[in-house]
Predict the structure.
Amino acid sequence: MENSPLFKCGHTACAGCGQAVAARLVIESAGANTIIANSTGCLEVFTTKYPETAWGVPWIHSLFENSAAVASGIEAALIYLGKKDTINVIAQGGDGSTGDIGLQAISGMLERGHDILYACYDNEAYMNTGVQRSGLTPFDTNTTTSPAGALSSGNLRPKKPVPEICAAHGIPYVATASAGFPQDLIRKVKKAISIKGPKYIQIHVPCPLGWRHESNQMLPVARMAVETGLYPLFEYEFGVLSGRKQIVPKPVEEYLKLQGRFKHLLNNPGEIKKIQEIADNNIKKYGLKLEAQG
Amino acid sequence: MENSPLFKCGHTACAGCGQAVAARLVIESAGANTIIANSTGCLEVFTTKYPETAWGVPWIHSLFENSAAVASGIEAALIYLGKKDTINVIAQGGDGSTGDIGLQAISGMLERGHDILYACYDNEAYMNTGVQRSGLTPFDTNTTTSPAGALSSGNLRPKKPVPEICAAHGIPYVATASAGFPQDLIRKVKKAISIKGPKYIQIHVPCPLGWRHESNQMLPVARMAVETGLYPLFEYEFGVLSGRKQIVPKPVEEYLKLQGRFKHLLNNPGEIKKIQEIADNNIKKYGLKLEAQG
Amino acid sequence: MFGPLTVKPKNSKGDKTGSWRTLLRPHYLHKNCIACKMCLMICPEGCVSGKEKNAFSVDYTFCKGCGLCADICPKKDIEMVSEEPNSEGVS
Amino acid sequence: MFGPLTVKPKNSKGDKTGSWRTLLRPHYLHKNCIACKMCLMICPEGCVSGKEKNAFSVDYTFCKGCGLCADICPKKDIEMVSEEPNSEGVS
Amino acid sequence: MKEIRIHARAGQGAITTASLLGFSYFNEGKYPYAFPNFGAARMGAPMNAFVRVDKDPVRLRSQIYEPDYVIIVDPTLLRGYNCFSGLKEDGVAIINGKEDLELPKLKAKQSLFVVPANEIALRNIGRPLGNTALIGAFAAATGELKLDNLIEVIKKRFSGKAQEGNIKAVKEGFEYVKKGIK
Amino acid sequence: MKEIRIHARAGQGAITTASLLGFSYFNEGKYPYAFPNFGAARMGAPMNAFVRVDKDPVRLRSQIYEPDYVIIVDPTLLRGYNCFSGLKEDGVAIINGKEDLELPKLKAKQSLFVVPANEIALRNIGRPLGNTALIGAFAAATGELKLDNLIEVIKKRFSGKAQEGNIKAVKEGFEYVKKGIK
Amino acid sequence: MKEFIEGSHAIAEVVKSCKPGVISAYPITPQTHIVEDLAQMVSSGELKSQFVNVESEHSAASVVLGGSACGVRVYTATSSQGLFLMQEVVFNIAGMRLPVVMTCANRAISSPINIWNDQQDSISLRDAGWIQIYAEDNQEAVDFHLIAYRLAEDKRVMLPVMVCMDGFILTHGMETVDIPEQEKVNKFLPAYKPLYKLDTADPISMGLLADPDYYMETRFALQETMRESIVYLSEISKEFNNVFGRDYKDLLVEEYQLKDAEKVIVAMGSVCGTIKEVVDEQRAKGKKVGLLRIISYRPFPYARVYEALKDVPKVAVLDKSVSLGAYAPIAVEVKSTFFGKKKGPKVVSSFVAGLGGRDITPETIYEVFRRLSAKEVNFDFVDLKPELLKEEYGE
Amino acid sequence: MKEFIEGSHAIAEVVKSCKPGVISAYPITPQTHIVEDLAQMVSSGELKSQFVNVESEHSAASVVLGGSACGVRVYTATSSQGLFLMQEVVFNIAGMRLPVVMTCANRAISSPINIWNDQQDSISLRDAGWIQIYAEDNQEAVDFHLIAYRLAEDKRVMLPVMVCMDGFILTHGMETVDIPEQEKVNKFLPAYKPLYKLDTADPISMGLLADPDYYMETRFALQETMRESIVYLSEISKEFNNVFGRDYKDLLVEEYQLKDAEKVIVAMGSVCGTIKEVVDEQRAKGKKVGLLRIISYRPFPYARVYEALKDVPKVAVLDKSVSLGAYAPIAVEVKSTFFGKKKGPKVVSSFVAGLGGRDITPETIYEVFRRLSAKEVNFDFVDLKPELLKEEYGE
Ligand SMILES: Cc1ncc(C[n+]2csc(CCOP(=O)(O)OP(=O)(O)O)c2C)c(N)n1
Ligand SMILES: Cc1ncc(C[n+]2csc(CCOP(=O)(O)OP(=O)(O)O)c2C)c(N)n1
Ligand code: SF4
Ligand code: SF4
Ligand code: SF4
Ligand code: SF4
Ligand code: SF4
Ligand code: SF4
Ligand SMILES: [Mg+2]
Ligand SMILES: [Mg+2]
């Protein structure tokens, strides 16, 4: 991968933004013959404030909730023009635009069988508007609309399982990835692009601002999410689990303590135990545990 | 179940409407301490044309796509009023309002964990507006927007697996049922009502108008859907398959030939084979086949 | 002032959909009924009533003549019979 | 007339985000580099370039000094060093 | 300008009837405007369709309250409400029904034709869809449309067996009334 | 009416600075209006905040183009663009920076104070957040606000260790300028 | 060729002849027949187009947005709740200057839900930056679609156009329509040549964020183009007449019996047919009445309205929609037309009729003429049922 | 108690004192701080309420609809795209006569996307059947929420109310606000006693289909209630003054230096503060200028506007929104106010300023006064950057 013109310097993401890392890798992996439909959100704002654009490929932003539908229209137009076979279509957005307000448009896109890759940059909250909870915000996270307080220890609900929801549509390919594992991410994007039909990739992208860690902590944070089992990396093909990254599980506290958004939990073993259970369930469900090697 | 005042005579459904049967059974099973939020659709139109109402329980219709959200507001209000423990909340609508335009509101409701039963009356098309395809229209069905023609043998896409999508949310209870099996339906509604949290029941409801069969054919049609494996009856608890109605599978043709909407397929063994595959996959996936009894 | 359109169920008499029947109506034979209530359960109109064996009846003011009751009756104790012209229905 | 706001990438020079660096900047030691390209891959700005061993470099016009390159380098061949006050950055 | 009101139940083909009449008028160089009065009607519920026709394009868009002609596709509708409401003093009504149908009293100059259209249809088409027979009867009773023209319209609209049967039905409907008038 | 413009990078607390100034004015019976000039700014990008204050409620809602006072929270901003734009002829600028900071030429009656606010903060609060020290310096340089009042405001806003540290910082900032003026 | 044809079917025919490459719509009464017919044409191979069956109107509008952004001609249709659900996208399309053409089968809005005709749906989208033209009959509805594409794709315009036709009355009404021949359509409507599009051969970014430094000019540009479109409408109308021999004049208003008229109704859409009947009847009796039909509601042709009504003493504006808490939507434009003008009507009274399918009969129109007196009235609803106005709550 | 407080926080405080039982909202700049503060209050136990974090604005509005239908006081807030996305529900709530109160943090609409202030969002919902009142400063914004609940829940009204406040300028501006004491709030705003509600003890059906026989009267009723609300606003304003000692007069308009004024600006919202400054400066120089501030945009107070401006020779209407292809939304109301009236301004010119956060400075206002001459202008945008208007496409 070269310092290529598909995702250019000079955008205005926060320093160390995991989403910027991932978005660059996605378009670099997909290549120049790609058209992108982007939802409203940090990525859109930091890459395309008029009169600047970071995008070297044809790129469109319409609204917060409709990138999957706009992409569907693009794909249809390309078919009509006889160009679909040579051009990839990517729809992309944050976890909020994906799992909350845009879910229906995505579900429609999946159901209709468009040949589109949907990429979700999962920073686990509405960052562009100042760190409000989304459906993909993890349990007990402190955000501005799920504040920890006398009556609450943060976000009340578990993280919405959007990859599973997409897999339940029976589409050819669903994967999770992480900005902390760039090579794995690149492989998955390339694989997705090579498959015809609707694909969904959800990428865990640390957000220094919203997660409250230093800019240079992006990688350790991203990796620890995977290594604790809190962010399992897996692949589904046609609704069936077909791959997973195995780990030697670390205790969730290792992950939580790296971030300000979980600070309120650190003296609360009861809550930490609940979070450990989430990790344990993931480990069991996806078979994440690396068996001791002989 | 008595001729009770919860779903009253004098509504204007077509004679033999499967949805009317199912809706009556749902509210009779849930009982008088229930509040219903209903989407736009046949059920809404045929039960509540001013100044008449068929509903003996508190009932509200707002829009086509928001009954799950309206129900969420009702549930929240009941909690606020301290009345939630004694009152059931049901959100309901057709397959279109459920699996297409209302899916996001439902997903939100499931994700937030409201104590609500969502009942989907699946007549496999937009009936209220004149039989257009929905995401839940089966493969190859002839509808007004998926017409069979020189270039098409009806609906291009397989039926959207909404129960699986709901189950993927990890909610406590998901079930499919059929107007052709009233006792099974009643049991499932009662079971759902007894569980706290979000529940989803999808009920197969033949529509004489849209499926093009005689009014008095509702039961054979409904039953044959189940008996061919095309409409599997199953239950999921917390995302795990926990029950299914087993069958001695009949060939799908037995089902198709009962209905005008599949008439164009009857001399098309290639297409019928594809549909048989769908049934076979269901039979495998859900373990529907009744083992020969000794 | 004419407010939002709300209706109390007790004030709604319903449409007299019995007039929709044009061909057939259910006739309860009251012979082999086992009071299984399947007819009552399946009626889309909810216009069947009864508790005891051989004592189920239909409210023809509303019955649309769909025939589901007859179809489901395990004892074949309901027959669909020809609607007499000009008979009641709008009773 | 001022139409819809469209921009051709070739006409966009980008913001000079190098001016955002306030504390640290990456310094490539060019000693043990194995040209694994991890630094290039991880840079959120895409401002690292290079192909050959020990020949990777950063465009400080854009580098925000996040330190991810230094963190990921398997050979510890990148160091974050103090930003000299009034040094270039807006080059 | 002539105005026709058709009474039927949803699903009984009132709109088809209106459109067939419209086509026939159109073929004879008139300007028909055929339109339904859709309720939120389900199959079985009473509904209307209308035809307004003139030698010039019809601009009037309101429903028809004082029809010149009334066509009643389903005689059971007579039970429920007044299908003849507003019928012109010299209006004509065509009713699909058996001969023994009990009829309301009409005004002196109004005339009324009961046509066993369903029977005719059953015999010729195999299904009790009396619309084409009624159209034939309408043409005979009112003199508004030519039988040949009706047959042309049927030919365009239907094909194969249905065409054949409907042509027979339209003719029989026409003859039935002609005979009665004689 | 006095107008203050604060220059900082998103995330450096310009809004906190503005609000602390506002609180202080409020405590002294004035009517401040403190407001940000939000861009779609990410952490690190330059941004402004404003305070407009008067003895009567402030009604003017526009941004501040000709400030009486300018506070520059991050000296690296001086590289990029003109933070002194529109500064009144007799305006005062407070800059967070080291003493050796290279400064632009100002107009004759304008005055400029460089305060090592980050150092002060680091020493007292443990983090290089110079806002409170700058406020102290502002009070000293302009005579607009009383130190005691600033301390009251800090007391309300912060608690525990942060309170202590910030009180020290505000005092040191104040003293630093006072000393310089002397 | 002249056909006796249902309005919806006629629209589908003309849309087919425009050869849109992407069609997307979501069913809603009374728009359904149009889309069903198009689905049929695609399925039969008559029309080569991508027909995208979406899960909501929001997505229908988004799909055509995406298609149009690729430089392909697109089509959608909706009504009422559907139009409202896509409102965000509707504004968005205009701001992105995409030449989308939409049919709005006008219908009342909820609550209470009502599937019948009035014009509240498109009227309430009047700020969106779409040109809105209202058809009186199905011939116009058909022709306006051709004009809509031509106008929308004009390089000087690049705005979306909404063709509004009364639900049921036109969409489900069958009448005689001259369906434009393909050859003539080809002549009148050349292939769409986009000024900007998503194209990997020459990438652009579309839909960028505009901060306060840039935003306002984009709105000004929209407003200016709207104003200029007044002229383009007339131009294109002339060309339409050249090719098809049907003359819609300036396509802004139709003047009917305005000469010497003392009482004039201003109205829009199919009700104008009924009004014309009454006007003719009245004229036959020597009453000096007339009709000013608004064709283009956006841009609103103030100057033409002024010219047409400046010597008319009494004007009744008949709205089929309301702006709750204010003057009715057409009435307010007509009233303000005459502000500060030397000439003008003595009275502009505002009437509301036909909401939610309440039938507008000749008697309704007579009643409007009767109520149009020297005393100006506003907020005047015609054909109300007094017995319904009594209902009380909270007994 | 007087506090120096951010607008959003002040709104959260007053909403807390109104004790809504169900709160639901979806984040969108610049509404976010209000909702975040409420979330905090609920989490800390300060406010006993169900705070429902939804997946979209459409659902936020639907949740409060459902809550309100149960007879519970509810609250929501939004902006711009959020308001547009819930448009269908917004109309629905009014038709169902539910006394929902919403804060609209006014913001520009997309495309292009812009998060800054103008008033296009709420303005474009003006037909919806919501009472809309616009605050000039944060004291008003706070007080208007109390008034909103009181008005909405008045048995004679039963309409939703939208309190509009300029995004950032007010929502993110900190100033001195007298936060109403709980005791006084209790006195002014009694618990909500619904006329109709979903209640298993006494079931009703709500939201029924109304066919042409019934629909029109429901719209008439809405329109009538809107008109009557003009009176109720004044009434409630008086009671508010009794309890809180702040006098908003009739709550319809504010007259500022109108006596003898020769040039008057009509405007709405926070910009009126800036205009007042300029008016004072001008008056000090002997120039007879003034301001008419519209507070209630829906219902629009035609009679009051007439009274206020009937003797003013020149009026400039300053809109912070547009109706593309037509006169600006406030301008069109003001112009039509004077139709057929004996008295009235010679000139009503229409200006547009401050779109998408373009800063409105005193100079802007001076410019408006300058451009307000004997020659009426319309569609006049102030503060455009000429260099931006040249861009061409399709090189
Ligand atoms: C309809 C609508 N509602 C709300 C918003 C405000 N909004 C813009 S971006 C955003 C959050 C984005 O969150 P996410 O999708 O997770 O992306 P992120 O910024 O976190 O990368 C919100 C709430 C909007 N633009 N449109
Ligand atoms: C936003 C919106 N779009 C479209 C419609 C029109 N509409 C009303 S009901 C309906 C179809 C209902 O289908 P389904 O939910 O399957 O219920 P059914 O009538 O088949 O029982 C449609 C398309 C609407 N009311 N609102
Ligand atoms: S807020 Fe988070 S996601 Fe947004 S640009 Fe900053 S680091 Fe990236
Ligand atoms: S159309 Fe179908 S679903 Fe609707 S009422 Fe008739 S039978 Fe029932
Ligand atoms: S025929 Fe149908 S409607 Fe009548 S009683 Fe039997 S089931 Fe009910
Ligand atoms: S279904 Fe038959 S046996 Fe059962 S209760 Fe009814 S009539 Fe009796
Ligand atoms: S990461 Fe280190 S070793 Fe790898 S290319 Fe960069 S500098 Fe060289
Ligand atoms: S410090 Fe960050 S921005 Fe700079 S080159 Fe390294 S990774 Fe890129
Ligand atoms: Mg996010
Ligand atoms: Mg359905």
